[in-house]
Amino acid sequence: MTPKPSEATLPVPVVYDPAHRLGWFKDMIARVGPHLLGVVAPGFPADTPLPAFTPPSKSRFGQGVAHYGIMIPDLPAPHHFMANMTVVGFTGFRAWDVDHARQGRARDTSTVGHGTAATDHDPFSAHGAEDSEFAPDGSSLRFGPDYTITGTYPNFRLRSVRPGFETDLEITATGDVTWFTKRPYYTHLALLSRYRGTITHEGNSTDVAGLCSFEYGKGNAPTMVRDKPLPAKLKVPFDFFTYHVLNLDADTQLLLVGTGTGTDTPLAMLAFERTAGGGSRRLGTSVRFEVTEFRDQPFVCPDGETMFMPASFRWTIRDGSQTITTLDGSVDTQWLYAGVNVVAGYTYTATHEGRQISGRGYLEYSDRRP
Description:
By secondary structure, this protein is mainly beta. It is built from one helix and 25 strands. It has one helix spanning 24-37, and strands at residues 15-16, 58-59, 62-71, 82-88, 110-116, 124-127, 132-134, 140-143, 147-152, 155-162, 165-183, 186-201, 204-221, 240-247, 252-261, 265-275, 279-282, 286-294, 299-300, 306-307, 310-319, 322-331, 336-337, 342-352, 355-367. Strands 2, 3, 4, 5, 6, 7, 8, 9, 10, 11, 12 and 13 form a twelve-stranded antiparallel sheet that branches. Strands 1, 14, 15, 16, 17, 18, 21, 22, 23, 24 and 25 form an eleven-stranded antiparallel sheet that branches. It has a two-stranded antiparallel ribbon with strand order 19-20. The longest helix is centred in the N-terminal third of the chain and has 14 residues, at 24-37. It is globular, with a radius of gyration of 19 Å.
């Protein structure tokens, strides 16, 4: 008999650490994962051209899959963070697909996860071809009737209207770019950006401004030649993902990425620091992520699947044998279902390259381990 959520057993603790000896096969995966993804070395050449911000298209390798995201980690209370997670198509990866949300053909389905810590509307919506529209040059992206991203690099605008909640933000990229993946089959980058505008919640408008991340990913998924998502047993067993965005000061941002398969096999553990006008650099030679405490009750997704969410966690970044960053986070907001991930905000304290710092962070989390 399937246990009720309140009776479910806490999962095996998450500890992803390439610095530990994992056995020859797991160790090999940890070492070659970033290279397979095409993670760019520290720094970013000023003359590197940005890819066009275009929606997915058909190719001989299958239908394109695209992702647009705007992550804000430190809004004023009661919002604290903002999630803007959009995906067009299905990836074929266990950690990210939301099969229950399909609208008509899988290749025409787009999803949006949007809200803050104060959100009391449903943050998740799914849309089909009839109520979404993507300009060929990517200058206008409409997901349903109430969520749009417009503009071209480096200036964008986000507008949304949800029940009791409205957003109008102007976003300007600083020119500092972090490449997570740069391969012919998939590209994923994060633009360090500044935002300014208003958030209206239950009739109360708040002027906001600060540092955010504007993200774009595009690739080809052979699975998208089908009209339906892949069956669960055939999906790529990429089943754990977490992503964090933190502003260290008014000009500096830290990005932390953890991906894995199974209980202890990391695929890519990455940390980047970027500064407005100063570029992006990859930190350390190894990155460790550990959930130090889970919440007692699991999060129940709309499709009925349950995931235990972290209450607290630790990141450790090493450069050789030297620890350069230790960051402890404590989740203090509600979790919002955003489709490919569940999103929350947290407070953190850290020692980073000799400095004692604290603040707020944004995290995405998906734990689909068997």
